[in-house]
Amino acid sequence: xxxxxxxxxxxxxxxxxxxxxxxxxxxxxxxxxxxxxxxxxxxxxxxxxxxxxxxxxxxxxxxxxxxxxxxxxxxxxxxxxxxxxxxxxxxxxxxxxxxxxxxxxxxxxxxxxxxxxxxxxxxxxxxxxxxxxxxxxxxxxxxxxxxxxxxxxxxxxxxxxxxxxxxxxxxxxxxxxxxxxxxxxxxxxxxxxxxxxxxxxxxxxxxxxxxxxxxxxxxxxxxxxxxxxxxxxxxxxxxxxxxxxxxxxxxxxxxxxxxxxxxxxxxxxxxxxxxxx
Length: 277
Ligand code: SAM
Hints:
The protein is an alpha/beta fold. It has eleven helices and ten strands. The strands form two sheets. It has a five-stranded parallel sheet, sandwiched between helices. A five-stranded mixed sheet has the order 6-7-10-8-9. The longest helix has 13 residues, at 66-78. The site of S-adenosylmethionine has 22 residues, from α5, β8 and β10.
């Protein structure tokens, strides 16, 4: 690590999502040299630290105690200690605790420094084969109630790639609900046990994956990546305004007609007419 830690720094340290080889040398150095490691499950993090021969003191920071623990951590940082936040797997704050602590550290005027590394959302996105930018990450699919149906409504209209965490037990139900909501023909990917022994990436339409997982419930940890909804066709007024802008920019009519029909779904004769108007 090239820069020594400033007193009072909180490091946000990513740890592996399965394969222990995915921890960075910088992460190990921070965990070795800081005064305190804040972990969700201290026993689980102890295994990771022991594996690397690290004996740094551990304290628990989880959803239920974050409000209580945060002021104490701030006091210690203000006293000049350096701390690291880790979660059970992957990157803290990504569907894991830490939001409140990071906000409090910023409000106290102390440094927060990332030590980036594994996160299931990005690992799944980059092997999905679906466009990676832009994408929206929704965290865990809500189990029930209004939040669950609001997510379905949101996904129905989203024109770019979406990523969700889901439990293996609920995966088939969730995919089936998406088929019922009318997006069964959209492409999707179920990425399971990434970086682990039984890693599997299954691609298909939502309908195909729903059918498959209804009879083959997945084991282990799962990320679902959903392709965007087809772009809504523009009305004639919007197409005409696009055509005018492109002609004003000096594009030839042939290119304007091509863009209108191929990129915006305009019928060919309408595209031709608007491009030459
Ligand atoms: N903070 C973590 C991260 O950066 O990915 C995520 C923590 S969240 C509590 C746990 C969820 O992440 C799992 O239920 C699963 O959806 C996803 N996940 C974590 N590890 C995974 C893996 N190896 N393969 C697939 N999904 C994984």
